[in-house]
Design brief:
The structure is a homodimer of 452-residue chains. Chain A is mainly α. Chain A has 22 helices and 6 strands.
């Protein structure tokens, strides 16, 4: 078993030094010890000159694997120094789905040129095929490499066929069975194949009950299906039911992680998929839209408070609790909508009606509202007037109820109109609750101070 | 290929009606058409009587699969109506890891009794073994079912051995090779096994370069390793390097999803793992701690503003922009910390020092701060006094910078002290930024109004 080298920043610094000294012997030894995924992590941290130098030292197959694993921006940077022919050589050593992903990132004007340089005609046509599917569909996720045999064969003939086909397949989880029209009939588990007699006919051991998707299925549908039924590989068929590819769980794991990250970013008010290695301007542009939304909310808030200028002049203590009311409305709204957003993502809301959800959230709101407002009553009654204490605690209770309602209602409604409900957990609901909270607070205040 | 029935609330209502009419013939037909995962979704939505009735109609193996897939609370409810012997019968039909998970949820006093009723002695000892590992470790995640052969065998003998062993294994992705001390030597891919001659010795085709973990590895380490190297199955060894189990990717997919959900909940100020089907009191208790944190923040805020009571009396317009300052500090802080939390989760922060991150975030803060504060200057100069306009825009700029700094610094520091940095993205940083924002705002205000 190979030693695992941990990729630390010290280790990367050490490699950088060796690159500066052009110590190719030492570097080759090191690269030999590393997995492709680890080499990619190293290269992600190098500047372009260092990265090119190190990349050139890699063996052909490893180089292709590393290229697949690199971060998108680093890969673009590196490939921009390659000729179209050199890019084509790399793609020749990749699985078709990875190759299609890489080509998709290239500038359109050179995509065709790269394709024309790929030596393996089958590979080139597989890639061209995959490029035709829309992004985010099963077609764009799948790879063309798979092992399939005809339903009329025997186990022995099938194993011979597998010997021939496995050249193009890295790992093989299942063997698909098709009929003479290439229509998917079922699956052979490798286990059954190994333990069956060579003369057994495939139609005796085929498992006809196999999950599959059409090329047009969305990646969310694919990931849901594979998670629900614990699938490792999923065959993809075209509109006529013909087997055209397969999706493996490792690609879906990436989809799941990206989905979760996208939701977290949206909830945090970041509108674009960015990470902390992105450039300053991109980071800043991804955040400004929601800041402006928040600012509009703040301005509306200022107009509302502006209406009560006289009251504040007479009772400046009214201003003390503005931040508390705003913050609590925001917090409760975020909590409620996070629960709903997760329920929607996990399909655990099924069978429950919207009104049930609302009732339950309002129940939680009543409990938490009573706890919080009696605490704030006790505090403010001790150190402020009873009028202020009553205003703050009544308003707080109303704000918590109102935020529970909105935090439930808004994401459910967004979901019904096919808008990502995670948007509701972010600055949108927070801003809305801020405004509503202030309105309630000053309304209650005016009522108590002027009427009583 | 089987038809897939979509589980809608109409479909569930239909089944409920048939249960009420005790129409077991129709229900059995329906259950026959459904996958275990789908039956579990249905049962999750039934009350206990309905669930018990439907569950009793299931075939033995399907019943065990459904039990595995049920939501934890529904499973507990259902099992509480079973005798320990009946529970043991279900566990006999499960994979060892699923069985151990189920037993773990039972009250401690009956765990031993259930174990003693399991007929298959090997299964019982496997389960007892798995129960001894701490939760959240590779040992608790793994299953004991695996196929392993000795390094000295030939391919032919190995296939015979596989025939014997596969009874206990549902799906088989790889065959592990061990030495006479049960130490893990390497792996055989099924592909190689199928295409090799029966007389080939295993040591000629064994792949010694295999990833593995120790039983004590954390589930995060397992999930990181499997994601990084795109593994479908990972062998687990004990302290002596002996093969004791294997972890499959579908279990890890659940870990990944649960991690992401936990982070979202923590970021939203929910302290316990709850979902919207949980009981009212549990939902409410999971949220109250962070609401109280937010309330303390609000009270501190009220004390700070209290110090400026006279100023507010003279210049009540100062109060107008309190919500804006608070909201913007919160929004910017959440954005910054979300980026850092994700970077930490994805290990993309490697090689970057904390000070680099801080500088970059401050850069983004300066850009967005300049944009926002010039806009607010323009707005407030038009409709308020120049002093208020200057106060608001200077304070807003300072608040945005400060929130960028804290949003970066706090999660990085938490991470260094092994505290989940997602905590920082939630009410904690929001509350802190609220307080700091108000302090800055009134300080700037006093300076401008009194000094100038």
């Amino acid at each position: 078993m190979s030693m695992e080298i941990e990729i630390t920043s010290e280790y990367i610094d050490q490699l950088k030094e060796s690159i500066a000294q052009k110590n190719s012997g030492y570097l080759k030894d090191q690269l030999h010890e590393l997995y492709a995924a680890d080499i990619a992590i190293v290269i992600n941290q190098l500047d372009l000159n260092e990265a090119s130098y190190l990349y050139d030292l890699l063996e052909e197959q490893v180089a292709a694997d590393v290229l697949t694993e690199l971060e998108e921006e680093k890969r673009e940077e590196l490939l921009s120094t390659f000729s179209t022919k050199e890019i084509a050589e790399q793609l020749d050593n990749m699985e078709s789905d990875d190759a299609a992903d890489v080509i998709n990132e290239l500038p359109e004007e050179i995509q065709e040129e790269v394709l024309s340089h790929i030596e393996d005609i089958d590979q080139a046509s597989d890639i061209a095929d995959l490029l035709s599917y829309e992004e985010g569909t099963a077609g764009s996720l799948m790879a063309k490499e798979l092992v399939c045999v005809y339903i009329n064969d025997t186990v022995g003939a099938c194993i011979d066929e597998i010997r021939k086909q496995t050249d193009s397949v890295d790992v093989m989880y299942a063997v698909y069975v098709i009929d003479e029209n290439k229509k998917l009939i079922g699956m052979l588990s490798l286990k059954k194949l190994i333990i069956s007699h060579p003369l057994t006919r495939l139609d005796e051991i085929v498992e006809p009950d196999v999950h599959f998707v059409k090329t047009s299925a969305t990646s969310e549908e694919v990931s849901e299906l594979m998670q629900k039924y614990d699938l490792v590989v999923l065959p993809v068929v075209d509109q006529l039911g013909r087997l055209v590819g397969r999706i493996t769980i490792d690609d879906v794991v990436d989809v799941i992680r990206e989905e979760a990250e996208k939701d977290i970013q949206i909830m945090s008010g970041i509108s674009d998929d960015v990470d902390s290695n992105d450039r300053l301007w991109r980071l800043s542009r991804a955040r400004i839209p929601w800041l402006l939304v928040g600012m509009c909310g703040g301005i509306i808030g200022s107009r509302i408070i502006g209406n009560y200028e006289n009251q504040i002049q007479i009772h400046p203590e009214m201003a003390f609790f503005i931040p508390l009311i705003g913050a609590m409305g925001g917090n409760v709204g975020v909590q409620s909508s996070a629960i709903i957003v997760q329920g929607l993502a996990n399909n655990t809301l099924l069978g429950d009606t919207i009104s049930n959800k609302l009732l339950k959230e309002l129940g939680v709101g009543v409990i938490n509202g009573l706890i919080c407002s009696s605490l704030i009553w006790a505090y403010s009654f001790m150190i402020e007037s009873w009028k202020l204490a009553a205003t703050v605690s009544i308003a707080l209770f109303a704000v918590i109820l109102c935020a529970s309602f909105l935090g439930t209602f808004v994401p459910l409604t967004m979901n019904r109109f096919k808008i990502n409900p995670a948007l509701a957990t972010g600055p949108f609901v927070t801003t809305l609750n801020d405004i509503i909270g202030i309105t309630i607070y000053f309304l209650v205040g005016r009522l108590l101070y002027h009427v009583l």
